[in-house]
Inverse folding.
């Protein structure tokens, strides 16, 4: 199961420290998503969608940890109960706002993604498929507000790029 | 960028034909998600979440096509403007309902995933991160209801498993 980069995300987030931990905390942050020209045909009709999923390779995440202390709590949880990037398969996903497309460059907002991140996939965000009002949000329902951080630090960051 | 399977999805969907095209059309379909024992620690505290994302390798998807006629329309669109599985990186994602966990087996409902599909990741579904009422849903807003199919056929299916 090998992945190919289909593009690169150019964002103002140069380091983990200071980067919002989720798109919902990143409304002011815009980025350019460069899709490689050979995939141009795949972008047809994408512009009609208000929001899109970006799937990406967390290229500067530390090696996988099965227990992590996430940003939004001060207790340890299983990594699959968190969105931390240090996972066995470090694939991130973010629902970002699509502002426009020019040729093969997407202009997006609400970006919690590091500059230079390899892009793996784009999918349309479809409310009917993706939007649920979940009543139970696990440990997040009881997390300690004093430690409920919206901006990342270096805890999951490795300046050496993870094997491409 | 190499992926490792962290488990296998055991579902009643043996072939693409007859499988719902999205979880929202699959409310009656339950499955067992077997997580390999070496990842057991990563599941701690997952049970508190009502819904989870499953990321998986579409192992029986045809080779990538950049233009596709999706199930929910009769016109061709760029593959990145659809959720069709025949993509450059055939990674699927489905927000399914978590009914319970016993040891390392997750019992889930709302499954649009073929039996035997390799599991890549589990993430908690968090309404704050994932739920948006998008006003514009692209071609889906104008798709022809007569060709708006909720159950898959064989168009993206290849009985020979895609390179694991």
């Amino acid at each position: 199961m090998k992945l190919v980069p289909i593009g690169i995300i150019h964002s103002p987030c140069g380091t983990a420290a200071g980067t919002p931990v989720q798109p919902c905390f990143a409304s002011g942050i815009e980025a350019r998503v460069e899709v490689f020209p050979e995939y141009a045909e795949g972008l047809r009709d994408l512009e009609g969608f208000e929001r899109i999923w970006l799937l990406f390779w967390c290229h500067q995440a530390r090696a996988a940890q099965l227990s992590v202390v996430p940003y939004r709590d001060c207790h340890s949880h299983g990594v699959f109960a968190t969105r931390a990037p240090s996972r066995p398969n470090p694939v991130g996903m973010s629902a970002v706002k699509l502002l426009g497309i020019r040729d093969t460059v997407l202009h997006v907002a609400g970006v919690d993604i590091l500059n230079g991140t390899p892009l793996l996939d784009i999918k349309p965000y479809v409310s009917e498929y993706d939007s649920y009002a979940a009543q139970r949000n696990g440990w997040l329902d009881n997390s300690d507000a004093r430690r409920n951080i919206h901006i990342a630090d270096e805890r999951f960051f490795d300046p050496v790029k993870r094997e491409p």
